[in-house]
Design goal:
By secondary structure, the protein is an alpha+beta fold. The protein is built from nine helices and six strands, in the order H-E-H-E-H-E-E-E-E-H-H-H-H-H-H. The protein has two domains: 126 residues, Glutaredoxin, CATH 3.40.30; 68 residues, Serine Threonine Protein Phosphatase 5, Tetratricopeptide repeat, CATH 1.25.40. Strands 1-2 form a two-stranded parallel ribbon. The chain has a two-stranded antiparallel ribbon with strand order 3-4. Strands 5-6 form a two-stranded antiparallel ribbon. The longest helix has 18 residues.
């Protein structure tokens, strides 16, 4: 978030708005301190039930949609890192992110519909991942699990949480959310293994960028 805050300040356009959504069942108690530490001046939302990622069928965070002044999606579903990041050292180092996304975003803010990075309606439609029936059931099960957990009914919460992951095993969002309740957290060794298995199986961890 600090880097996106810097980008937001560099763009400095009253017509450009960032809405940052924390997908976390822990709610304000968990996500609030992270927002407070970053001290962003753009809009922040805590989404306990992953409504936003479900609506766009995002597989993982961070992902984003560009929405123009007419309310039309003009770019969607990519890994929206503001720069290249690296975790670890030597042969075990993992590099992720891109240095081309931020310049493309700035070009869009400056040029609007004339930006070369605006996707056609057909491309946007093709890039929106359609929900299967099982994915829709998984979303409902996930929200039921959160409801049961909020009311202290751990057994029922685990039942529906497991159901959500069984129905939609490709959702990194579900996997990472579950890991937040573990001691190692959502970016530890288990997550790194999941990410490696996901990529080695040929699945799109993020949709490849056409930039």
């Amino acid at each position: 978030m600090p880097v996106w805050q810097q980008v937001y300040e560099e763009i400095n356009d009253p017509d450009f708005v960032i809405i940052c959504v924390a997908e976390d069942t822990g709610g304000e108690a968990v996500a609030g301190p992270i927002f407070d530490a970053a001290n962003p001046t753009y809009i922040q939302i805590v989404d306990e039930n992953h409504i936003v990622s479900s609506s766009f069928n995002f597989v993982n965070v961070p992902s984003a949609a560009w929405i123009d002044e007419e309310g039309r999606i003009v770019r969607v579903d990519e890994g929206t890192y503001s720069k290249i990041h690296q975790i670890g050292d030597g042969e075990e180092a993992i590099t992720f992110g891109s240095d081309v996304y931020t310049p493309a975003l700035k070009d869009w803010v400056e040029k609007g519909a004339e930006s070369e990075f605006v996707q056609s309606a057909a491309t946007v439609t093709g890039n929106l991942r359609e929900h299967s029936f099982d994915q829709s059931k998984a979303d409902a099960a996930f929200r039921l699990a959160n409801l049961f957990r909020a009311h202290g009914q751990a057994e029922q919460a685990e039942q529906y949480w497991d159901m959500a992951q069984t129905l939609n095993p490709d959702s990194i969002n579900f996997i990472r959310q579950n890991l937040t309740l573990s001691e190692e957290g959502s970016a530890g060794e288990t997550f790194m293994k999941v990410m490696g298995d996901y990529v080695s199986s040929g699945k799109d961890y993020y949709r490849p960028m056409d930039l």
